[in-house]
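Researcher: First entry.
Model:
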Amino acid sequence: MYQKKLKDDIRCPLEYGLGIFGEKWNSRIICVLAEMGTLRYSEIRSEMSNITDAVLASTLKTLIANDIVQRKSYDEIPPRVEYALTEKGETVIPILQSICHWSSKFYKQDANEEMTHCQKCDYCP
């Protein structure tokens, strides 16, 4: 497994939080799992658009390492692996909802085009 050469220099809780759900794909994966529950890798992949397998695998590993997503493997043939939000991961949902509500208020003021909603996020107004 890849190991960073330098430790993250996180100096406040806000930086920690933004690192957890502020990355491009993290919040989308969290929203998909919150909306649809426990999913297999291929199901997550089919719900996401414009994400490569390498990025999805890497992002899932990061979310697992941060105890946001849990990975459960079953001793079956063929092997089956499922992903779901942890209890800690579920506590991120209200934060993402708040960000979505805030963004929907002000995004239209700053953009020339109508805001399009995330296809898998029912949290936005």
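Researcher: Second entry.
Model:
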Amino acid sequence: MTTEAPPRQAASQPPGRARRPWGARLLAVAGWTLIAAGSVVALYVVYAMFFTDLATEREQRALLEAWEAGELDEAAGPADGEASGDEGLVPDDPTLDGGGGAEASAGEVGGAEAVALLEFHRPGSDERPVAASTLVVIGGVTVADLQRGPGHYPDTAMPGEDGNFAVAGHRVTYGRPFFRLDEIEPGDEIHVIDRAGERFVYEVASSEVVSPHDGWVLGEDPLETGRPTLTLTTCHPRFSAAERLVTFAELRP
């Protein structure tokens, strides 16, 4: 009697790897691309917020030491650098365009290496608003100038003179000299020391937010009081160049 052999079972094969649909593969590529782009942006932010601050703080220390030692070059000034006016605003450019004739053209020497010192004080308090340390004001507002510290708008008044002594400063990056400008209050004092060592005390009158094109703030008498004025400008809000925060102070008699 013949016995039928049981049918041979096919050898089991490991399940094959299912191919993902094109849509899922594209989504994966897009996701990795976004992660890479985010990493590049994060690295740039670290550079902009940390390394530029270090470079400007080092420059400010050197300028202050030279000031105190009487070693500043009266004729020195920026030899190059892109202008910060109508030619185009950089992301954190605190200058104002239009009006006042205060824009520096590329390569223009704004004056001395440093034109003044700024100190912020709150009467009756040890607290120093805006900046705890003394700021050296550079003679000009080109991009290169403002990378070294706050800059004096050319063609505006000098410290203590009739008219408007106007100064721009970065809100973020490059030392962030005016990062805390929004904390200043009416009645606070801004002391300005000129190259001759004379100290002028300006009392804060008001602050307001304006358009980047509101050049009237750089005018000779922006408050229309007839008194010598100090004007500080910076970007607003922080991390944006959409508007400008402007602080006005008047010279005490």
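Model: Note on the second entry: The longest helix spans residues 22-69.
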